Amino acid sequence: MSSLMLQNPTVLLHRGTNRCSSPPSDQNPCAGGDCRTIRFHHRMRNLSIRSELAADTNNGMPKQSQNLSFPLLVNGCTGNMGKEVVKAAMNIGLRVVPVSFSSREGPDRVVQVDGVDIKIHGPSERDDVLASLVQQHQGLVVVDFTLPTAVNENAELYCKVGVPFVMGTTGGDRERLFRTVHEADAYAVISPQMGKPLVALLAGFEYMAREFPGCLQGFIPQVMESHQTSKKDASGTAKAFIKYLQLLGVKIDEEQINQVRDPMMQMEAVGVPKEYLSAHAFHMYNLTSPDQTVSLEIQHNVCGRSMYAEGSIDAAIFLAKKVQSKADKKLYNMIDVLREGNMR
Ligand SMILES: NC(=O)C1=CN([C@@H]2O[C@H](COP(=O)(O)OP(=O)(O)OC[C@H]3O[C@@H](n4cnc5c(N)ncnc54)[C@H](OP(=O)(O)O)[C@@H]3O)[C@@H](O)[C@H]2O)C=CC1
Ligand SMILES: O=C(O)C1=N[C@H](C(=O)O)C[C@H](O)C1
């Protein structure tokens, strides 16, 4: 065990807001913790896309109670998504292990999320610290929102120490990522898109591609995505859509994604509200028939990050259940999570 671990024994945080006084039960989705109706409306406010969320909810309540007893470690807490996931986890009373990692060395680094100190360890301590946390916290699940440059090394580390993980980080060498998990026979949920309405849209395209391959043969594509300037790679969600478009017969590759990162253009040409320049994901796919008489347009615009954080927590809960039940299948995507009704 590293000396840092001894100096900083991890304390499991169990914080909830909007506490519900009813006892937890299968029928009571408040599960003795938070009232999810409030969070449901909060999420509706934060979404700029119009989707029928109600279809999968029961008056805003989740269909099933969830076992929230597993510890969660969020990797990437120096970044935006890492912090958002910690907030979402604490909001439903999940136990967050207040440790995270960074690509940079530096002693005694701490980031605060909602008043909670999270100890940050650099690359030289990372392996030992994580291995000892896995020993200390039975049932530990990791959620990773780091950077494309970290995806493969991080996944290899999780597989080496034997911790199930949710990989929300996009980019990196995706083939190597899937190979790593497959060869390690590890439990993981991997998806470039964690937001429920968009996972549903992707599932729709998966269905179309399976049932009607080639039905958009010859259609001419245009793909545009706009994200905050700090985004390092092209949209992983757009890449996933492109895979389905290819199966539908559209000639397109990832290089054709038009990435908009200039704030002025985002406001003026794309229509991103000024207050969301630093946190948005707008996508537009336009498909025109060869004779130009038919055009299809698919657009999904998201402001803020809460939707992804909520979905990541759903994925972590789903994965914890799969580990607990020793499921034979070990590698999942978010369509699997949605299909089993695990997205609140
Ligand atoms: N699947 C989904 O639905 C979504 C995916 N994403 C993806 O998540 C990723 C993160 O996004 P976002 O939070 O906005 O990005 P940020 O740039 O805000 O944060 C990324 C953080 O990762 C840290 N980091 C880099 N390398 C490592 C490493 N080896 N170990 C630990 N931490 C590391 C960096 O900190 P430091 O400099 O300290 O190393 C940085 O703070 C992106 O790939 C993005 O596309 C985002 C939203 C939704
Ligand atoms: O970096 C982001 O912000 C996002 N990344 C994911 C992607 O690349 O598809 C999901 C969403 O677009 C937000």
Automatic annotation (TrEMBL):
The keyword rRNA-binding does not apply. Residues 72-194 form the Dihydrodipicolinate reductase N-terminal domain. Transmembrane segments: none annotated. Its EC number is 1.17.1.8. It is an enzyme of class 1 (oxidoreductase). GO terms for biological process: diaminopimelate biosynthetic process; lysine biosynthetic process via diaminopimelate. It catalyses: (S)-2,3,4,5-tetrahydrodipicolinate + NADP(+) + H2O = (2S,4S)-4-hydroxy-2,3,4,5-tetrahydrodipicolinate + NADPH + H(+); (S)-2,3,4,5-tetrahydrodipicolinate + NAD(+) + H2O = (2S,4S)-4-hydroxy-2,3,4,5-tetrahydrodipicolinate + NADH + H(+). Gene3D superfamilies: Dihydrodipicolinate Reductase, domain 2 (3.30.360.10), NAD(P)-binding Rossmann-like Domain (3.40.50.720). The keyword Amino-acid biosynthesis applies. It comes from the Eukaryota. Keywords: Amino-acid biosynthesis, Diaminopimelate biosynthesis, Lysine biosynthesis, NAD, NADP, Oxidoreductase. InterPro entries: DapB_C, DapB_N, DHDPR_bac, Dihydrodipicolinate_Rdtase_pln, NAD(P)-bd_dom_sf. GO terms for molecular function: 4-hydroxy-tetrahydrodipicolinate reductase; NADPH binding. Pathway: Amino-acid biosynthesis; L-lysine biosynthesis via DAP pathway; (S)-tetrahydrodipicolinate from L-aspartate: step 4/4. Residues 214-338 form the Dihydrodipicolinate reductase C-terminal domain. GO terms for cellular component: chloroplast stroma. Belongs to the DapB family. This is 4-hydroxy-tetrahydrodipicolinate reductase. The lineage of its organism: Eukaryota, Viridiplantae, Streptophyta, Embryophyta, Tracheophyta.
